[in-house]
Amino acid sequence: MQIYKNPNCRKIRGSHTLEVSCAHCKTFLVHYQKVGESNFVKMYNDRIIEGVIDFSQYHGAINCPNCNERIATRYITPTDKKEAYRLTPSAFNKKKSNLINGLNNLKYISHFCKILNW
């Protein structure tokens, strides 16, 4: 399974990373930057970090590559006219991931190692 970086992704301040997977076969789908603790009902395209789907191409929906179950449908949000994916309830699992926090911690560790000459 190949992981594709999203070319539209930008780092969102104050976000945490979610790992989204298929509820039926438990296959990893995407890493997503979630802001706030509200319900997870849609994924904005510019907050998807990476996934098993190539986001540089147009997709009408996100389907699981393993079992072909529909996870989300693409739409344009009516309020801010941004491209997003509306998630199908009970078709996905999510859990917090330390993808971005782990990268930030590596920066701090390398910075302190330079200070201490390790």
Task: Give short descriptive properties of this protein.
118 residues, globular, Metal Binding Protein, Guanine Nucleotide Exchange Factor, Chain A, 9 strands, 4-stranded antiparallel β-sheet, 5-stranded antiparallel β-sheet, alpha+beta
Report on this structure.
The chain is of the alpha+beta class. It has a single domain (4-116), classed as Metal Binding Protein, Guanine Nucleotide Exchange Factor, Chain A. 15% of the residues lie in helices and 39% in strands. The protein is built from one helix and nine strands, in the order E-E-E-E-E-E-E-E-E-H. It has one helix spanning 99-116; strands at residues 4-5, 15-22, 28-35, 42-44, 48-51, 61-63, 70-76, 83-87, 92-97. A five-stranded antiparallel beta sheet has the order 1-5-3-2-9, with helices on one face.
Give a nutshell description of this structure.
With 118 residues, the protein is α+β, with helices and mostly antiparallel strands. It has one helix spanning 99-116; strands at residues 4-5, 15-22, 28-35, 42-44, 48-51, 61-63, 70-76, 83-87, 92-97.
Q: How many helices does DSSP assign?
A: 1
H/E element sequence? EEEEEEEEEH
The low-confidence runs, each spanning 5 or more residues with pLDDT under 50, are 101-109
- Overall geometry: globular
Q: Quaternary status of these chains?
A: single chain
- DSSP E strands, number: 9
Gyration radius, in Å: 16 Å
- CATH architectural group: Beta Complex
In terms of DSSP E residues, the strand content is 35-45%
Main pleated sheet: 5 strands, antiparallel
Strand order of the largest sheet: 1-5-3-2-9
Helix content: 10-25%
What is the name of the CATH topology? Metal Binding Protein, Guanine Nucleotide Exchange Factor, Chain A
Which class do the helix and strand fractions yield? alpha+beta
Distance separating the two termini: 37 Å
Mean pLDDT comes to 84
Just give the CATH class. Answer: Mainly Beta
Tally of domains: 1
